[in-house]
Amino acid sequence: MDTIQSDGYQIFFEDSLTQLVNFIKEGKYSRSFVLTDENTAVHCLPLLQQYLAEADNFDIIEINAGEESKNLDFCIGVWKMLIDFGADRKALMINLGGGVVTDLGGFVASTYKRGIDFVQVPTTLLSQVDASVGGKTGVDLDSIKNIIGTFTQPKAVFMVADFFKTLPERQILSGLAEMLKHGLICDAAYWDKLKTSDLSLPAIELVHRSVEIKNEVVIEDPHEKGIRKALNFGHTVGHAVETYSMLNDSNPLTHGEAIAVGMVCEAWLSNKKVCLPDEQLAEIAEVFGKLYPKHSIADDCYPALFQLMQNDKKNQNGQINCTLLTSIGQYSIDNICTEQELCDSLRYYTTL
Amino acid sequence: MDTIQSDGYQIFFEDSLTQLVNFIKEGKYSRSFVLTDENTAVHCLPLLQQYLAEADNFDIIEINAGEESKNLDFCIGVWKMLIDFGADRKALMINLGGGVVTDLGGFVASTYKRGIDFVQVPTTLLSQVDASVGGKTGVDLDSIKNIIGTFTQPKAVFMVADFFKTLPERQILSGLAEMLKHGLICDAAYWDKLKTSDLSLPAIELVHRSVEIKNEVVIEDPHEKGIRKALNFGHTVGHAVETYSMLNDSNPLTHGEAIAVGMVCEAWLSNKKVCLPDEQLAEIAEVFGKLYPKHSIADDCYPALFQLMQNDKKNQNGQINCTLLTSIGQYSIDNICTEQELCDSLRYYTTL
């Protein structure tokens, strides 16, 4: 598999940890800091340490696992550890984890002493196909996802397929939702291939294709002014469902589970507003219905969900902006949706 | 006076508030937010409001005055207010204040929703000649100055000479130290002009020349890899003296007062290490001695001051790096100084 060239950095898929060691040696860094969470410290760090042992001095900084850690308190904790370790501007941060670690670690690095280099070693399927490309860093504030952050590219991304082989099924499904999205917005043939593949453990070639699609989109539009909005398909409704679930459910939805709900709702909106054919809507609903457990959304949650949609970073002038599909493999950006339409789309999902 | 073209933005010196109004109208912003502190809210905001009244809807966010506000708690407060006001990505932040407001406001804007536009309206002499150019944003953490921040350019800078006419003398002297530095590092004729001018209220033409010098330096080296280090003259010792004073003195030194001490010390180092002529060292010591009150530094502070110098962002590999002068108007970067040399330079200042 080819290395993918992104916006000023490379994404490695083969011999990635050897490549990481070479990268560190060539970079002449004063010191390396590996950011992990409790889980990756156990499941992924030992392998990384075997490789790093020959590369350089390094220190380990661990944060708690889970979205609840993705906040400014943890940033302050990591910044203070960097200060205590005497990290200078030639220090390197190696973010080893899922989206929380890569997003938070990227933000911490991009703002420590006005920016030190960082690389991403995404350990979940979701972070491999999503957080690894695009240069978005960030943390949550007041339960609003990624509201504080920067656009800063990593210096390299290293994909290690072995890391997600031990992931629980729900984590695989979470990443898979983004992969299915990549097919829906840009590549009908890839969508067809995913539909018929064994998705209990997606092949690294499929991951590679997803990264390729996302990379093409973000390279054309690094600051989300235009076509990058394609990637928001499913996310207007999906983010609201995800945040609502995080605030209210004892066992909250994963990102992918929420986005799967969002994609079905937004496929319905696509059918109503931009002529997605009926049979394609049915196909989308069927594929997600088979893969993902049904999530129940009571009518009386709609106002709260709508409120969350209004808080979305991507809105302007208080209007809610959706990316929709004109057909499978073709997106349409900047579709303004009303409260009524959005609630109807949730109703459609509920009645499936 | 000409408008100065900086790295992607303009710095206005004439009819600046009219220019600001035009800027806002042309930018089609969804809303404007004026960040002030207690002082600028009283002394500067009323004038700004007269102009803004015809431009747009705007809201005011006020923080406490003083360096103690330049921290992440205040950032969180401002971010939350932006969220509460429903600020979207097309919002504009107008930072009306001294360096604390422009640095903190720039950092908050550059990280809110991964970056909204901001403009600077610096109200002190120091922020006009220093913080207004260069794209440095940031806040302090654990008493370490500007340790968290970004390199982000404002969309424009508006200089209003009227604002600093009411500043206390110590604030004028604080800005003047940076102006004198600009002469020392790059322009001997400007240094000579400053020496012989009435400096109780520097003419706006002098401010313009200082901004021009700083602008030329930072445009060549936006990320402080090389020649921008010229601007660090006086700052290795000066920052340490400033931080130490802030932590220990009931009436701490201003930035400029501390940098004035630092410049005398580093002029002495320049004489010892890079052949700054004896008579130029004497001249520098005399000019600063006349303008600035003598600051007493006891011998037993030296270890703490040295510790602070080691924490400086600009160091690498634990070595202390100074920008020195080979003559007035000529700098020399990357001079490594030992603890002994740095302490001797403090001793020189003390014996003057």
Automatic annotation (TrEMBL), chains A, B:
The GO terms describing molecular function are: 3-dehydroquinate synthase activity; metal ion binding; nucleotide binding
For this record, the Gene Ontology CC terms, alphabetical, are:
cytoplasm
Would you indicate the residue range of the signal peptide?
none
| Biological process, per Gene Ontology | aromatic amino acid family biosynthetic process; chorismate biosynthetic process
Keywords of the record, alphabetical order, are:
Cobalt, Lyase, Metal-binding, NAD, Nucleotide-binding, Zinc
3-dehydroquinate synthase N-terminal domain boundaries:
61-172
Swiss-Prot/TrEMBL cofactor(s):
Zn(2+); Co(2+); NAD(+)
Q: What is its EC number?
A: 4.2.3.4
Give residue ranges for domain 3-dehydroquinate synthase C-terminal.
Answer: 175-315
- Pfam families tied to this protein: DHQ_synthase (PF01761), DHQS_C (PF24621)
What this chain does, per the entry, is described as:
Catalyzes the conversion of 3-deoxy-D-arabino-heptulosonate 7-phosphate (DAHP) to dehydroquinate (DHQ).
| Xref: NCBIfam families | aroB (TIGR01357)
Q: What is this protein called?
A: 3-dehydroquinate synthase
- Taxonomic source organism: Mucilaginibacter gilvus
